Amino acid sequence: MTEEKHVEAASMLGRAKKKEGKKLPQYLATIAVTISSIAFGSELAWTSPALPYLSSANSTLPISPEEGSWIGSLLAIGAIVGALPAGYISDIYGRKLVCAALSVPFILSWVLVCFAKSVYFIYIARLLAGFATGASSAICPMYIGEIAEASIRGTLGGYVQLMVTIGILYVYLLGAVLPYYLLNLGCGLVPIIFLIAFLNAPETPVFLLSKNRKSDAEKALRQLRGNEYDIQYELNAIENEISKSNANKASFVQIFSQRATVKALVCALGLMLFQQFSGINAVIFYSQQIFKEAGSTLDPGLSAIIVGVVQVLVTYIASLLADRAGRRVLLLISQSVMAICLGVLGYFFKMKDSGEDVSSLGLVPLASVVVFIVVFSLGAGPIPWLMVGELFTSEIKGIATGIAVGMNWTSVFIVTKTFQALINNFGNNVTFWCFGLICAVGAVFIFFIIPETKGKSLEEIQMELSGKKRSNVV
Questions:
Q1: Is there a single domain that holds both residue 302 and residue 386?
Q2: 3-state SS class at 362
Q3: Same domain flag for 193 and 260
Q4: pLDDT at 293
Q5: Where are the transmembrane segments (predicted)?
Q6: Is residue 415 part of a domain?
Q7: Cβ count within 10 A of residue 65
Q8: Which of 142, 207, 230, 358 has its CA 20 to 30 A from that of 424?
Q9: What is the DSSP string of 158-197?
Q10: Cα distance between residue 119 and residue 139, in whole Å
Q11: Does 378 reside within a domain?
Q12: How far apart are alpha carbons 328 and 379 in whole angstroms?
């Protein structure tokens, strides 16, 4: 009798283990899709080594400062155009197909840059690259959110920003050792590698079930969880969520009037807005100057590489912490400490611009920049991309994600085009204090508005957003 009980207990334990799928296939699919984020990061960072060359006397394609400004800004304009319809289009044709197709404009953009005969070729290339970048930044979080188990969704969701930082570091490294034309070829390899790697990744079970392709969804889920995993419970949960959405079909006006959807959209838009208006691009722009103020003799290119390495390492750590510490904690720490760092930077520039001797304070702004980049990479950088893939139901996820990511890129464009004007009109100190104030407001927003999504199912997240308590009755 005792032996039979042991056998029964072992059998129950075996069944219990099947409730957790294999993790490696989910990691591999996430890495494959986020190679497009490396392409995204490469596009962002390309202007750092490219514009100094194009503006130099040795350039084969000389450009003016105004043309250089537009080369930097057109990426954001293209990204806005790409982000807005991307989610909706992926609702029709699938996350995988649409995301894989984005390799085409990525590759075309680098072909145009390599063979550019005038600055207009580069303008078109940057618009194409921006379109692909905006669309991929909308679809990647959706794809990951739909393939990942709740227990590792935070970690995998953090890979979007992690791969962006790897793409930025990749370009910094290439720019330090390669001439302009080889830099462009090196960047052009990334979308090719993405296409090859992503072809073997599965479509998301959520999309397949939404199109009544149950056998394909079962196959995809087995590919993602392993053959030992009992897929039926998860399939039923996804089907129930889709059935509930279909039963409650409503116009977009009605959907956007629902409390859970409105709050989810407010959360996503707020996170994207505060991410870009944190001043991250301004701080990175000034990082080389601040290194000099600190008495550093580092080459500007090497200092950029150091900043890139710090971002990659801390973003990776953040991906590990997202499912342990939680989203809210990381966001609150990030926003609060960034506000302090920007306040210190603003005060340093106030003293410097007033003619005071700041030679003894060189390490203060240097430490502020390093800490700022660390805490941004810990929370404000990766968490918004993770949460935008968690907050929305399937019926609205496509269009809502597009709106949120469109907000992000609109903010990028505004900050990029107005930053120098703010410096010229109000000074360095006021500019950094403004960004610091926005970070402080962001911390308050997160504390009162943003829900914790760590380890929660979509149903649990929606209940919290709508203000309902989950019933314990199964």
A1: yes
A2: coil
A3: no
A4: 64
A5: 27-48, 68-90, 97-113, 119-144, 156-175, 181-201, 264-286, 301-322, 329-349, 361-386, 398-418, 430-450
A6: yes
A7: 8
A8: 358
A9: THHHHHHHHHHHHHHHHHHHS-HHHHHHHHHHHHHHHHHH
A10: 30
A11: yes
A12: 9
Residue 192 sits in the same domain as residue 330? no
Q: What share of the chain in percent tops pLDDT 70?
A: 91
Separation CA 50–CA 97 (nearest Å)? 32
Number of domains in the chain: 2
Containing structural domain, residue 74: 20-201
The verdict on 157 and 91 lying in the same domain is yes
Give a yes or no: residue 246 inside a domain: no
At 66, which CATH number? 1.20.1250.20
User: pLDDT digit string (tens) for 254-266?
Assistant: 667 788 889 999 9
CB-CB contact of 323 with 155 (8 Å): yes
Alpha-carbon distance 205 to 193, whole Å? 24
Measured from the Cβ of residue 410, the count of other Cβ atoms closer than 10 Å reads 19
Which two tokens mark 375?
């805490």
Contacts 24+ apart (CB under 8 A), 154-157: 154/319, 154/322, 154/323, 154/327, 154/386, 154/454, 155/319, 155/320, 155/322, 155/323, 156/26, 156/27, 156/30, 156/319, 157/319, 157/322, 157/382, 157/385, 157/386, 157/387, 157/389, 157/390
Neighbours of 52 (CB within 10 A): 15
Q: What are phi and psi of 393, to 5 degrees?
A: -75, 165
Let me know whether 159 and 60 are in one domain: yes
How many other C-beta atoms can be found within 10 angstroms of the C-beta atom of residue 355? 7
